[in-house]
Specification:
The protein is of the alpha+beta class and 113 residues long. The protein contains 2 helices and 3 strands, in the order ααβββ. The protein starts with a helix and ends in a 6-residue tail after the last strand.
Length: 113
């Protein structure tokens, strides 16, 4: 009985670690995509594409289906926000779609001040 309890506890901790890994990977990809889109000679499409590439190589294309990018303001500065909606891994990498939403922000670069 103790062995079963320890097994369940171990699997739960591993699943939590996997969920945090997925979340942190998505946040990093969204931030990188926002930085790419915020460059003076790039567009929002460039940022979305870079985010999809990073997520696809790290987690698989199933996690890169819903990526959006918009111009706006963040903390009083003109910025790019890249938002990723992905499955929340509940059992392995399987879970409910669009249950996890993360965003990355970057200030928009301007030429000439």
């Amino acid at each position: 009985m103790v062995g079963a309890l320890l097994t369940v506890l171990t699997v739960a901790v591993l699943q939590l670690g996997l969920a945090l890994l997925v979340r942190n990977t998505l946040i990093d990809a969204a931030a990188e995509g926002a930085h790419i889109a915020a460059l003076a000679d790039n567009t929002l499409a460039d940022g979305r594409q870079r985010t999809r590439e990073l997520i696809g190589s790290a987690l698989g294309d199933g996690y890169a289906r819903s990526v959006s990018a918009v111009y706006g303001t963040y903390r009083g500065m003109r910025s790019v926000t890249v938002t990723v909606r992905a499955p929340l891994p509940v059992a392995g990498l399987l879970g409910p779609n669009h249950a996890l939403e993360v965003s990355g922000h970057a200030p928009v670069e301007t030429i000439g001040g």
